[in-house]
Amino acid sequence: MIMQLVIPTGNPKSLIRLSLGDPTVFGNLDTPDSVVDAVIKQLKNKKNNGYTHSAGMPEARAAIAKKYSTPNAPLTANDIVITSGCSGAVDLAIKVLCNPGDKMLIPSPGFSLYQTIASHFGVRCAQYKLIPEKQFEVDLKHLESLIDDDTKCILINNPGNPTGSNFSKAHILDIIALAEKYCLPIIADEIYANQVFPGQEFHYFGELSKEVPILSLNGLAKQYCVPGWRIGWVAIQDKQDRFKNVRNGLLSLSQLIMGATTPIQAAIPDILFNTDPSFYPTMNSTLAKHALFLYDKLSQVSGLVPIKPQACLYLMVGIDVNKFSDIKSDVDFSEKLLQEEMVFVLPGTCFSIPNFIRLVYVAPFEQLEESAVRFADFCSRHMKK
Ligand SMILES: Cc1ncc(COP(=O)(O)O)c(C=O)c1O
């Protein structure tokens, strides 16, 4: 795909970036001081400047296990492998479950890294559909139709990027039942765990699965607003002991790169257990306020069909190209919006869903208000008369 999203020079309007899934870009969603202090403490004591176990520091693995255990899915330190960001966890999970030539099922729309890592390793991806009209639930019939003898796992991302969706407990149980029918393990990318809006409930796949082994992928990036710290992990949830080889495989693969940066690993127990508990709900409420504002405003613009988000950082907006006089596609829409209005969004084509755009709503509220005005002006200017 060739795209020309070049930031124009000479347009007097200020640039509004609604493109990057990074909560730190504007400084308004701040990392709590206690999280920063936890790392400073470790740097100052100079005790964690060396190498550590390739699967992560024992204290950090134990803290993650304690924090992310649920009554139905207790974890121990041995169930955790710390990685360089959640991207590292995606890499390990795919490589441990698939060999070159195997097939895995990934969501469409979905985070492009899955396909990038899989194809680099020679793993084929088949994309199962998410249904926009059902807030991007999985099209279970389509998912089932893709399963064949070569299929080695199903990758699910919940809450979702780029969809902003959060699956109900019933839907998660349906997905697990399908995986169980075909004896397929699940990779659950849960990097946005608990980052759901007031009124929504988040459920881990591992908490709801009895038979199907789950590799749950998570990290500090989004929940503590520190994507640059590059801390992620794989949590092995395997109630029936089916993953003995996978467990060993993960440990072997972790040795290829000597893990994530050690002073930050050393700070993990403090970060997870000494962060003000109000930080999280406050951030979620801010995100919900931003998301629902943009959703409401864009719902009133002819030619745009936003899908109500339930979680994390993302709003998907359908583009009804038939209503516009000179907009051919989501890519065309994104390019012209940037050139004329200085609003930067990503076309859905980046996530395998043409005729949608993805908005990230971490920007300060005033910028979102201004962007809503610019969207309305842009669409009305390009409307068919
Ligand atoms: C769904 C999803 N998984 C994984 C990642 C990678 O996370 P990290 O920055 O910790 O590597 C991202 C980052 O945006 C993401 O959106």
Write the layout of secondary structure elements.
Blueprint: E1 16-17, H1 33-45, H2 58-68, E2 80-84, H3 85-97, E3 103-108, H4 113-120, E4 124-131, E5 137-138, H5 140-146, E6 151-157, H6 169-181, E7 186-189, H7 205-208, E8 214-219, E9 231-237, H8 244-254, H9 262-273, H10 279-299, E10 304-306, E11 314-319, H11 330-341, E12 343-344, E13 346-347, E14 356-360, H12 365-382
Parallel strand pairs: 1-12, 3-4, 3-6, 6-7, 7-8
Antiparallel strand pairs: 2-9, 4-5, 8-9, 10-11, 11-14, 13-14
The structure holds pyridoxal-5'-phosphate.
The portion of residues assigned to helices is 25-40%
Q: List unreliable stretches of 5+ residues.
A: none
Rounded Rg: 21 Å
Mean pLDDT: 96
Shape: globular
Textual characterization of the structure:
With 385 residues, this protein is an alpha/beta fold. Helices cover 37% and strands 17% of the residues. The chain has an 8-stranded mixed β-sheet with strand order 2-9-8-7-6-3-4-5, with helices on both faces. A 4-stranded antiparallel β-sheet has the order 10-11-14-13, covered by helices on one side. Helix 10 packs parallel to helix 12. The chain starts with 15 loop residues before the first strand and ends with a helix. The site of pyridoxal-5'-phosphate (PLP) has 14 residues, from helix 3.
